[in-house]
From TrEMBL:
Principal subcellular localization: cytoplasm
UniProt similarity note: Belongs to the peptidase C19 family.
Protein name as it appears in the record: Ubiquitin carboxyl-terminal hydrolase
Source species taxonomy: Eukaryota, Metazoa, Chordata, Craniata, Vertebrata
SUPFAM superfamilies: Cysteine proteinases, RING/U-box, UBA-like
Cited InterPro entries: Papain-like_cys_pep_sf (IPR038765), Peptidase_C19_UCH (IPR001394), Ub_carboxyl-term_hydrolase (IPR050185), UBA (IPR015940), UBA-like_sf (IPR009060), Ubiquitinyl_hydrolase (IPR016652), UBP13_Znf-UBP_var (IPR041432), USP (IPR028889)
Length: 863
């Protein structure tokens, strides 16, 4: 056994004596009650620290708590020990060493696989032919940092041995967390790292493939050893075939094959004949390049053809990723990439843009010590902790260091190689922010704009005290609706977080060129000739801005002046301008056949944007307002009896419908009330309730109900009646205040939860903004009539109004035919120059494609 010096690289550790078996047992006795064997459902984290991106590959290794099974890097394990008192940790470390050289100077081919027992990704920068890995595990007892090497079956108590074996053999914690979510998670093939590829000169053409044995042209598989193209059978995707790929494996023993037509920059369908299952190949790009295939230029479709077989989109991939130019890698703080987890580039691009904003940097990374110190016992399930972890990983520079030439001499002198980690893997962050979301929790590609709104909603719900960095995006939209028959108007305001600009295709400045291209393309397709070079529509930005400001028809408009449906038109203006303006180009739409398609256009987005002319003006002289009369609410007959006879418990509110409404920009509490008062009948019915009640003074106040029974109560609630609640029972208020909360928090929480103590406590933790409302406390304590609280006006939306002059600092681009496929890349302007963030690759941009972006981020500048 060794002392602390050996663990932390301090002198004095090498002379520690080896203790007898009895000494080890005696040392562990006080800690035995805290050592657990992982049960079914326990999440065991042994690949990543809960507070950082340290792993067993890191210099300090990783410490796994033998009670909670959370993992911590060397900088954070002491915090967990102090907070929980847990003393026994398993220390995991992977060592990387150069292979022993043979007599001829080459590395000996045999690899000591028996010394690898951790399921970790190997470093892509290391050549597996030159390096070998050795994993080490030991128990560490805090606070004295005693070490017990593993395995140690003879000396350790049986319970400890079983617990250690269970931890080391545990599967991915993300797979356990949600089996449905991770059912498509594939194992890394054991043949991928050392796959033999024959140098036989085979080059695979971009199209025209057929099976080498039977001339089939579908369900074709490329063998990654010799480049043979052969048909598959029913394994893997049930596409059919004659099984020649499998026969080839049986004849030759070449284990891996990739399905042609599925290759994209994010990966491809890879099958291992030897392992008899679909697998991941972390070196797929290198293996494909051996046969002349560049993954960055590929984009698969369901019918086995690439997009450029149908329409030449290769140029889009090249331009956006700046292919063909020698890009200089960037390192250091703020230049850290995010590794692609498989269709996670939408998340990576949004988070890179988010953490380039100072307000988000200050809110999370600036508060790192406080957030980490006060994190819950399971920090992997805390939004603010994981945001802070991600922000620190991106901004610290700790995971983005350039290779130093002077280190090469040291590596030659030493046996052990110290791998340099570049880029971080956001697996823990993605697992948390996407849980319970049917789309983001999948491994499919998603819409970056939808994820941006989802993230803003999470920031709103988990804000730190009164600080809410998403306030920088929030603005008010004034909507003016005019009844075409009576000419009367209604002005309303709503909250939004981004500006959606339509694509004004009719304003293209190169219409003649587009018509000629379309004719040439159709002729080439008919004659099976190569397609012409793509001609992209050139749209003036001013035309898109004009289309945004033009009136639009209101479907199903109900005129309060006529007390009937009528024609109506709506115009939108900015009632306030945000600190940061996010502009989305509405490039995606659906065709007549409901197939999603993308407007492949070039828009001359300005570096400086002035939208002051879109400032709202309110009711104008001579305009007459529509009467303030609500339309009748029509409840479907099949749901009316259920709704009127039984009021749902607020705890059973359909949260998915609430999230759909909240992502439209409506206040979260208003969305909950809408879903509640419409009996969980879906987002569409709840949306109608919002439209009817959005002008009421208590629209955004928390849901309050005097009781849960009776049709009269339910009916009154559905039609907007709001009874005044009495003062909550003093004995319950006293219980909450005795816990250290203010009286005003206790009263508000009890009123919002129908005097339910347990739910009131949950409400307090989810509404920290009420903590410092001193005016409310004075009003509450000095007024004998507590019902006056119900008459208080709610706080208005938090906005940071100012000038409408903006400067572009970031944009996210999309490549592909729909938001459900393709690839996202982010460009950010830092220190006066543009930088491209393409997953884990961060480089100085030479030709930023500002005209091809999907989402643009502007910050306000003084006029």
């Amino acid at each position: 056994m060794q002392r602390r010096g050996a663990l932390f690289g301090m002198p004095g550790g090498s002379g520690s004596r080896k203790m007898a078996a009895g000494d080890i047992g005696e040392l562990l006795v006080p800690h035995m009650p805290t050592i657990r064997v992982p049960r079914s459902g326990d999440r065991v984290y042994k690949n990543e620290c809960a507070f950082s991106y340290d792993s067993p590959n890191s210099e300090g290794g990783l410490y796994v708590c033998m009670n909670t099974f959370l993992a911590f890097g060397r900088e954070h394990v002491e915090r967990h020990f102090r907070k929980t008192g847990q003393s026994v940790y398993m220390h995991l470390k992977r060592h990387v060493r150069e292979k022993v050289r043979g007599a001829s100077g080459g590395a000996l081919p045999k690899r000591r696989n028996s010394k690898i027992f951790l399921d970790l990704d190997t470093d892509d920068d290391l050549n597996s032919d030159d390096y070998e890995y050795e994993d080490e595990a030991k128990l560490v007892i805090f606070p004295d940092h005693y070490e017990i090497a593993l395995p140690n079956i003879e000396e350790l108590p049986a319970l400890v041995t079983i617990a250690c074996d269970a931890v080391l053999s545990s599967k991915s914690p993300y797979r356990k967390q949600d089996p449905d979510t991770w059912e498509n998670e594939l194992p890394v093939s054991k043949y991928a790292n050392n796959l033999t590829q024959l140098d036989n000169g085979v080059r695979i053409p971009p199209n025209g493939w057929k099976c080498a044995r039977c001339d089939l042209r579908e369900n074709l598989w490329l063998n990654l050893t010799d480049g043979s193209v052969l048909c598959g059978k029913w394994f893997f995707d049930s596409s059919g075939g004659n099984g020649h790929a499998l026969e080839h494996y049986r004849d030759m023993g070449y284990p891996l094959a990739v399905k042609l037509g599925t290759i994209t920059p994010d990966g491809a369908d890879v099958y291992s004949f030897q392992e008899e299952e679909p697998v991941l190949d972390p070196h797929l790009a290198k293996h494909l390049a051996h046969f002349g295939i560049d993954m960055l230029h590929m984009h698969g479709t369901e019918n086995g053809l690439r997009d450029n077989d149908i329409k030449p989109r290769v140029s889009e991939w090249e331009v956006i990723q700046e292919t063909g130019t020698k890009l200089k890698p960037m390192y250091g703080p703020g230049y850290t990439g995010l590794k692609n987890l498989g269709n996670s580039c939408y998340l990576s691009s949004v988070m890179q843009a988010i953490f380039s904003i100072p307000e988000f940097q200050r809110a999370y990374v600036g508060n790192l010590p406080r957030i980490f110190d006060y994190s819950p016992l399971d920090p992997t399930q805390d939004f603010n902790t994981q945001m802070t972890k991600l922000g620190h990983g991106l901004l610290s520079g700790q995971y983005s260091k350039p290779p130093v030439k002077s280190e090469l001499i040291e590596q030659v002198m030493k046996e052990e190689h110290k791998p340099q980690q570049n880029g971080i893997s956001p697996r823990m962050f993605k697992a948390f922010v996407s849980k319970s979301h049917p789309e983001f929790s999948s491994n499919r590609q998603q819409d970056a704009q939808e994820f941006f709104l989802h993230l803003v909603n999470l920031v709103e719900r988990n804000r730190i005290g009164s600080e809410n960095p998403s306030d920088v995006f929030r603005f008010l939209v004034e909507e003016r609706i005019q009844c075409c028959q009576t000419r009367k108007v209604r002005y309303t305001e709503r909250v939004d977080y981004l500006m959606q600009l339509p694509v004004a295709m009719e304003a293209a400045t190169n219409k003649d060129e587009l018509i000629a291209y379309e004719l040439t393309r159709r002729e080439a397709e008919a004659n099976r000739r190569p397609l012409p070079e793509l001609v992209r529509a050139k749209i003036p930005f001013s035309a898109c801005l004009q289309a945004f400001s033009e009136p639009e028809n209101v479907d199903d408009f109900w005129s309060s002046a006529l007390q009937a449906k009528s024609a109506g038109v709506k115009t939108s203006r900015f009632a306030s301008f945000p600190e940061y303006l996010v502009v989305q180009i509405k490039k995606f739409t659906f065709g007549l056949d409901w197939v999603p398609k993308k407007f492949d256009v070039s828009i001359d987005m300005p570096d400086l944007l002035d939208i002051n002319h879109l400032r709202a003006r309110g009711l104008q002289p001579g305009e007459e307002e529509l009467p303030d009369i609500s339309p009748p609410i029509v409840i479907p007959d099949d749901s009316k009896d259920r709704l009127m006879n039984q009021l749902i418990d607020p705890s059973e509110i359909d949260e998915s419908s609430v999230m759909q409404l909240a992502e439209m920009g409506f206040p979260l509490e208003a969305c909950r009330k809408a879903v509640y008062f419409t009996g969980n009948m879906g987002a569409e019915v709840a949306f109608n309730w919002i439209i009817v009640h959005m002008e009421e003074p208590d629209f955004a106040e928390p849901l309050t109900m005097p009781g849960y029974g009776g049709a009269a109560s339910a009916g009154a609630s559905v039609f907007g009646a709001t009874g005044l609640d009495n003062q909550p029972p003093e004995e319950i208020v006293a219980i909450i205040t005795s816990m250290g909360f203010h009286r005003n928090q206790a009263v508000q929480a009890l009123r919002a939860t129908n005097n339910n103590l347990e739910r009131a406590l949950d409400w307090i933790f989810s509404h920290p903004e009420f903590e410092e409302d001193s005016d409310f406390v004075i009003e509450m304590e000095n007024n004998a009539n507590a019902n006056i609280i119900s008459e208080a006006k709610p706080e208005g939306p938090r906005v940071k109004d100012g000038s409408g002059m903006y400067e572009l600092f970031a944009f996210i681009s999309h490549m592909g035919t729909s938001t459900m496929s393709g690839h996202y890349v982010c460009h950010i302007k830092k220190e006066g120059r543009w930088v491209i963030y393409n997953d884990h690759r961060v480089c100085a941009s030479e030709r930023p494609p500002k005209d091809l972006g999907y989402m643009y981020f502007y910050h306000r500048v003084p006029r």
